[in-house]
């Protein structure tokens, strides 16, 4: 089930949400330091993390699933967000260079069709970045945050899913070690907690950040097969009660004894009706 877009907006407007956004946005930026001239797509609720790329990328689009809802983004300019079906993106094939999934994979009812659609719109050499709640982390157990909603993943589960959907994991990291509490002291020490967590406690992080590349396999040319022409039957006029034969195919039979000409001659000669052919 998708989390309502208003709940997501309210979370990131609070103190805990601002810390989570800063931590994860820093990690995303470390993985993608340069996106100049690229087309970027975010799916789910990616707007807290796409803003840093707006001035650099050629095009930035936020696709928000219909089950979640959509909000106008950005607030200071023309809208770059669109309400869409998560398994049918309104984008042409190979049109994106970078795709970011945030608050999407763990909520999707049809995971593999979603990943297949991401594969379709991602260009050759494109990169996918997935942010999901960590199954072992504290955040996945706190339902009052978006990271406590949906289906969490472990690093091995996420890597397996990426491989099964024609992506090659290139980098899997842990992030969001700060506890999900509204303590001012804890949130003020978020940077130090993150540094310590990355060094010693990577297994209990709140989120997993995975980058993957698109797999493109060389196909074998299909063998040309001779297509059989469908059999065509000629229309048969209405028969009288004495007509001994059923409808005959329009093409000439291989058996000369059953050829239409001979059958016609036999039907005209009453003496041959009872004799064997």
Describe it for me?
By secondary structure, the protein is of the alpha/beta class. Helices cover 27% and strands 19% of the residues. It has a single domain (5-214), classed as Vaccinia Virus protein VP39 (Rossmann fold, 3-Layer(aba) Sandwich), CATH 3.40.50.150. The chain contains eight helices and seven strands, in the order ααβαβββαβαβααβα. Helix 4 links the parallel strand 4 and strand 5. It is globular and about 45 Å long.
At a glance:
Helix content is 27%, strand content 19%. With 277 residues, it is of the alpha/beta class. It starts with a helix and ends in a 9-residue tail after the last helix.
Notable features of this structure?
277 residues; alpha/beta; Rossmann fold; 7-stranded mixed beta sheet; 19% strand; globular; disordered C terminus
């Amino acid at each position: 089930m998708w989390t309502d877009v208003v709940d997501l907006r309210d979370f990131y407007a609070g103190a805990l949400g601002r810390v989570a956004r800063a931590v994860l946005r820093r990690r995303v930026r470390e993985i993608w330091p340069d996106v100049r001239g690229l087309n970027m797509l975010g799916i789910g609720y990616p707007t807290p993390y796409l803003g840093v790329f707006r001035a650099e990328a050629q095009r930035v689009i936020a696709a928000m699933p219909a089950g979640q809802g959509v909000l106008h983004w950005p607030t200071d300019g023309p809208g770059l967000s669109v309400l869409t079906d998560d398994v049918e993106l309104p984008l042409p094939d190979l049109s994106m260079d970078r795709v970011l999934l945030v608050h999407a994979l763990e909520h999707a009812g049809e995971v593999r069709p979603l990943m297949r659609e991401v594969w379709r719109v991602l260009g050759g050499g494109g990169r996918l970045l997935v942010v999901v709640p960590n199954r072992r982390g504290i955040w996945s157990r706190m339902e009052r945050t978006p990271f406590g909603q949906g289906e969490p993943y472990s690093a091995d589960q996420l890597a397996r899913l990426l491989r099964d959907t024609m992506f090659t994991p290139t980098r899997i990291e842990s992030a969001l070690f700060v506890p999900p509490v509204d303590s001012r002291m804890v949130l003020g020490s978020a940077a130090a907690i993150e540094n310590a967590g990355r060094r010693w406690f990577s297994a209990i992080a709140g989120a997993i950040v995975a980058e993957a590349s698109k797999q493109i396999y060389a196909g074998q040319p299909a063998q040309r097969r001779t297509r059989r022409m469908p059999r065509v039957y000629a229309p048969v006029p209405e028969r009288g009660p004495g007509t001994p034969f059923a409808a005959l195919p329009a093409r000439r039979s291989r058996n000369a004894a059953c050829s239409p000409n001979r059958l016609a001659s036999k039907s005209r000669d009453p003496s041959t009706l009872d004799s064997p052919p």
